[in-house]
Design goal:
With 111 residues, this protein is mainly α. It is 81% helix and 4% strand. It has one domain. The protein is built from 5 helices and 2 strands.
Length: 111
Amino acid sequence: MEQWFQILLTIFSSVLASSGLWAYITKRLEKKDVKTEMLIGLGHDRIMYLGMEYIERGYITSDEYENLYEYLYKPYEKMGGNGSAKRIMNEVNKLPIHKSQYEEEQNHEHE
């Protein structure tokens, strides 16, 4: 039984030490890094585009703010994004928040 264990241990150690396995693992990690970079880039682009639109318009609706902050900026920040998108978000936070069209329609229905 101990002989089988030695053989399996040797095989397992050989596989772990092989350069092919490490090359595969390294390649997988690089792909993940590239995907992460791409997601951060797309998040940054969308935050910048929408944020600038709202800043130029001079207000943001509550639905737009929720979309921008909760679904774009927070994940972007958690993934390591920062810089100009943070500055845009700080400016967006200063904008007056208007009720969304949906909220206004709901209020008119209840009157």
